[in-house]
UniProtKB/TrEMBL annotation, chains A, B:
EC number: 4.2.1.96
Enzymatic class: lyase
Species of provenance: Petrolisthes cinctipes
GO molecular function: 4-alpha-hydroxytetrahydrobiopterin dehydratase activity
Keywords: Lyase
Keyword check for Lyase: yes
UniProt cross-references to SUPFAM superfamilies, sorted A to Z: PCD-like (SSF55248)
Pfam families: Pterin_4a (PF01329)
Catalyzed reaction equations: (4aS,6R)-4a-hydroxy-L-erythro-5,6,7,8-tetrahydrobiopterin = (6R)-L-erythro-6,7-dihydrobiopterin + H2O
A Gene Ontology BP annotation from the UniProt entry: tetrahydrobiopterin biosynthetic process
Family: Belongs to the pterin-4-alpha-carbinolamine dehydratase family.
Name of the molecule in the record: 4a-hydroxytetrahydrobiopterin dehydratase
PANTHER family: PTERIN-4-ALPHA-CARBINOLAMINE DEHYDRATASE
Length: 101, 101
């Protein structure tokens, strides 16, 4: 069962995503979001597949909207109704596997 | 270049999607939407990949939102700012390739 990030984790792991990696908090939720833009649908879909496989592997799935080359991704953890270490892991995976942001 | 559905096409092709296949018009847009629900993410993502490949083949891409086993799909055609025969084709493909709706 995933648990919510504690204060130390928010400072050391969440803050860098918000301050350096352009993730932002979702209004009214303990969740983070970011929009990724690619060259075309081929590139966007290839990346989404990588994220889908990585998420499935740890049983953690995104909320995401896609139209053509744009993907809006939100991470939050249903189990604990907020951000957990799984969200940090997947957000970092998103950043590490995309070429553009 | 895709062109908007004419009156005859709306009657013969769009109407059945709205009246029988549970698609609905998007408020304020000449676009159709439908929510598909699957057993789990594996099933949802498998289906999304089939739709992605079919769309890419005819260079026509959905607007869609996914969270876990649920996929909300919208079809409209950017070129003509409204519904074209490509949307009818892809909506029908969506219906023909899903097990649940």
């Amino acid at each position: 069962m995933a648990v919510k990030l504690n204060e130390e984790e928010r400072e050391s792991k969440l803050k860098p995503l918000l301050q350096e990696a352009k993730w932002s908090m979702v209004d009214g939720r303990d969740a983070i979001k970011k929009t990724f833009t690619f060259t075309d649908f081929n590139q966007a879909w290839g990346w989404m597949n990588r994220v889908a496989l990585a998420g499935e592997k740890i049983d953690h799935h995104p909320e995401w909207f896609n139209v053509y080359n744009r993907v809006e991704v939100t991470w939050s953890t249903h189990d604990c109704s907020g951000l957990s270490l799984k969200d940090i892991k997947m957000a970092t995976f998103c950043d590490n596997t995309c070429k553009t942001s």
